[in-house]
Design brief:
The complex is a heterodimer of chains A (256) and B (394). Chain A is α/β, with parallel strands linked by helices and 256 residues long. Chain A is built from twelve helices and nine strands. Chain B has 394 residues and is an alpha/beta fold. The chains are: A alpha/beta (256), B alpha/beta (394). Chains A and B meet through helix 3, helix 5 and strand 6 of A and helix 1, helix 8 and strand 11 of B.
Chain lengths: 256, 394
């Protein structure tokens, strides 16, 4: 079992609902301070978005964040160097599109991420069917490969995806790209479909933008992912203290 | 059976042409891609579907399009040049072949709406046209920059009952329109088909679109035989995503004809690109040293694309076809030359192929060769833009 999954299973067994905020790496000069603030605010793992020029699965907020980050010169190497300088003490999960890893070299990319403290990767345009090569290099580097399931996922695919995903299973609440829909939508049905075939921790994302939505989803899921709402706050000029308060609001709602 | 490899057959079960193609989409879209593959395989093997597709292209689309011997142009080049006249098809380009197939398939799948991306507007206009004919609702995504360059086509689409959405993200051109159409498709996949305009995207699109366009090559093959030309020495077509080229190459892939795809020099994915993954496919892409997709630059909105269809990447890698680049200046020159020598104003896209023939006659193309040129579209949509460019120079 990958170390990420061991950590997240232990977390679930302790009765705590996982809170996973998403940050776009390099979106501001002080982005790592925001990440540290989220840790203080009560996050359990951090998703690190790596900016790509053509984010097919992302709505306007994360598109804008990616554009800003790229304009500031963010690369896999630059963000890994910044992360290596931190000791955040909780799991880091990379999220980006396959071309960046393909271009960097799969084994080299997995090695670079791993050496920077990243223990999982979400690649939303990498289908289960195309993932053999990536999964095999991840197996050499203790990077967990995390798959998404969606409201449109068919029963046979739920079974195969739940059996293949590592760390946790990412349940999309909505048939939408990030930041375009609000509310947990079909998430309970999606989580139930994963549960019917696997005991992997299952987190809900795409549609969770407020503490009350997070609390609602946590009644049936093991955790939540908060992306665009947080990125929007940071794009709007939030300080790390604002980020900490934002995350603490979600923490309180999840712990109630 | 002989040992000659066969080209342009069906891809592998995972949608690969050699190392290229495949399916790289969010899980949310996988069921729709699988459903489409099943529906296409079933329809394409059903004689009643194929009959309807052919009959619509005949009665509504104006097929078969003629092959015209370009007498004065041939004399100028020292070649025998024949043009396959896709410019005479309904809506002014080869795009009608694909959209007739895909809208009939949409109807067969029980969906009531299509979305599409467009660059120059030709695919958008064709989709709006085919959708109107079947009473399908239609939304077209077009880069904001392209809506300005091709404002008349925006109006055409609206006149046909379609909604046009100007895409303001990224470079505001074709690649961003594809991103936006994919994002939209996720939200409405139950009742909506994504009518992709070229031989690109996730499996089965590159294969399906090539099959719907292969009518160009099969017609041309028969037409050249009828007039005693036989198999031409060379087949030349412009390439953005590559649908008109794939369509005409399909008729000649297993003959002795040399196949040449002409890209815009500012978007030459085969010449200047490297392997990568974008828009659901693995193919050749123009990208930065860090794997960020770069913006293509071309005088023609239709070739302003940083990638190429995966089957073309394979035909290039295997050596079966050759891909070359042509710059904007030569394109403008060629457009005027063909207009004045033959009375045919080609689309700026098609003028790339014309320009390469003019440039290479007597060099890469031996004098006296027979050349089949795919005249993929007519230049009406480009006349205002060309006028402005030429007037600015006076």
């Amino acid at each position: 079992m990958k170390s990420l999954e061991a950590t997240l299973r232990t977390l679930r067994d302790s009765g705590r609902k996982a809170l996973v905020p998403y940050f776009m790496a390099g979106v501001t000069e002080d982005w790592t301070h925001h990440v540290a603030a989220a840790v203080h605010g009560g996050a359990d793992a951090i998703e690190i978005g790596i900016p790509f020029s053509d984010p097919m699965m992302d709505g306007a907020v994360i598109q804008l964040a990616a554009e800003r980050s790229l304009a500031l010169g963010t690369t896999i190497d630059s963000l890994c160097a910044q992360l290596s300088a931190q000791d955040l003490g909780l799991p880091l999960i990379a999220m980006t599109y396959y071309n960046l890893f393909h271009h960097y070299g799969l084994l080299r990319a997995a090695g670079r991420l791993s050496a920077s403290g990243i223990s999982g990767a979400i690649v939303p345009d990498l289908t289960l069917e195309e993932s053999d090569e990536w999964r095999s290099v991840c197996d050499q580097t203790d990077i967990a490969t995390i798959f998404l399931v969606a409201p449109s996922t068919t029963p046979d695919r739920f079974a195969r995806l739940a059996a293949t995903t590592q760390g946790f299973c990412y349940a999309s609440a909505r048939m939408a790209v990030t930041g375009r829909a609000s509310g947990d939508g079909d998430a309970s049905r999606v989580v139930e479909a994963v549960r019917a075939t696997s005991d992997i921790p299952t987190y809900v994302g795409i549609g969770i933008s407020s503490p009350s939505q997070a609390a609602r989803a946590s009644r049936y899921a093991d955790g939540v992912i908060v992306g665009s709402a947080l990125v929007d706050l940071i794009l709007g000029g939030a300080t790390p203290d604002d980020t900490e308060r934002f995350i603490a609001g979600f923490r309180t709602a999840l712990d109630e | 059976m002989n040992q000659t490899p066969s080209y342009m057959g069906a891809p592998s079960t995972s949608g690969r042409f050699g190392d290229f193609g495949g399916r790289f989409v969010p899980e949310a879209l996988m069921p729709a891609c699988l459903e489409l593959e099943t529906a296409f395989v079933d329809a394409w093997a059903d004689p009643s579907f194929v009959d309807e597709y052919r009959s619509v292209l005949h009665e509504f689309g104006g097929r078969p399009t003629p092959v015209t011997y370009l007498e004065r142009f041939s004399r100028r080049c020292g070649l025998e040049v024949f043009a396959k006249r896709e410019d005479l098809a309904h809506t002014g380009s080869h795009k009608i072949n694909n959209v007739v197939g895909q809208t009939l398939l949409t109807q067969r799948m029980g969906k009531s709406r299509v979305i599409a991306e467009t660059g120059a507007g030709q695919h958008g206009v064709a989709t709006a046209t085919a959708a109107a004919r079947l009473g399908l609702s239609c939304t077209v995504y077009m880069g904001e920059l392209d809506t300005q360059r091709q404002s008349l086509n925006v109006f055409r689409m609206e006149l046909l009952g379609a909604t046009v959405v100007a895409v303001t993200s990224g470079s505001r051109t074709l690649k961003d329109a594809v991103n936006e159409a994919m994002r939209e498709w996720v939200t409405c996949v139950d009742d909506t088909h994504y009518c992709l305009g070229s031989v690109m995207g996730p499996h089965p699109f590159p294969w399906m679109v090539r099959e719907f366009q292969s009518i160009i090559g099969h017609e041309a093959y028969a037409q050249l035989h009828e007039r005693g030309v036989g198999v031409p020495d060379m087949v030349v077509a412009c390439v953005g995503g590559g649908s008109n080229a794939a369509g005409i190459f399909a008729g000649f892939a297993n003959t002795t004809s040399r196949l040449v795809g002409v890209e815009a020099a500012g978007g030459a994915a085969v010449t200047n690109g490297s392997p990568g993954v974008l828009h659901g496919m693995k193919s050749m892409l123009i990208q930065s040293e860090h794997g960020q997709i770069e913006e293509a630059h071309s005088i023609s909105a239709g070739l302003d694309y940083p990638g190429i269809g995966p089957e073309h990447a394979y035909l290039a890698a295997s050596g079966r076809a050759q891909y070359v680049g042509i710059g904007d200046e030569d394109v403008l020159e060629a457009l005027q030359t063909l207009s004045q020598l033959e009375g045919i104003i080609p689309a700026l896209e098609s003028a790339h192929a014309v320009a390469w023939i003019l440039q290479e006659a007597g060099r890469d193309i031996p004098l006296g060769s027979s050349v089949l040129l795919n005249l993929s579209g007519r230049g009406d949509k480009d006349v205002a833009q060309v006028r402005d460019i030429l007037r600015d120079r006076q």
